[in-house]
TrEMBL record:
Keyword tags: Transferase
Protein's recorded name: Putative gamma-glutamylcyclotransferase
A molecular-function term among this protein's GO annotations: transferase activity
Keyword match Translocase: no
UniProt xrefs under Gene3D superfamilies: Gamma-glutamyl cyclotransferase-like (3.10.490.10)
Any Pfam family hit: GGACT
Domain Gamma-glutamylcyclotransferase AIG2-like, chain residue ranges per copy: 4-103
Keyword Translocase: no
Organism of this sequence: Flavobacterium hydrocarbonoxydans
Domain of life: Bacteria
SUPFAM superfamilies: Gamma-glutamyl cyclotransferase-like
Length: 105
């Protein structure tokens, strides 16, 4: 199983049903030294507002989110779900957990 840190839409039960065909159980965690930045993505019916993780100049800045356990096949589904504005990288969270996160591409 893989660890996935979510700070946005993947925390939604509706989105989880859509992407994984199940509801995920997660553990709260934080990512330090990063911040959220607004991002507009063109979708089928126009532009939509999202957030994306970017490194922060302030090492004490924290992003709160949830760590989920997903299979490799489910991680591949998330790769398809996320737009080209995001890239998947591994980070170490405040708990010491190494997890995948989607950051600005």
């Amino acid at each position: 199983m893989e660890k996935l840190f979510s700070y946005g839409t993947l925390r939604s039960k509706e989105i989880q049903r859509q992407v994984f065909n199940r509801i995920l159980t997660g553990t709260p965690d934080q990512l330090q030294g990063y911040k959220l930045k607004s991002l507009q993505i063109e979708e089928e019916f126009g532009m939509a507002d999202y957030v994306v993780v970017v490194p922060s100049e302030n090492p004490s800045e924290i992003i709160h989110g949830v760590v989920f356990e997903v299979s490799n096949a489910e991680l591949a589904k998330v790769d398809l779900f996320e737009s080209n504005a995001y890239k998947r990288v591994q980070v170490t969270l405040n708990s010491g957990t190494v997890a995948w996160i989607y950051m600005e591409n």
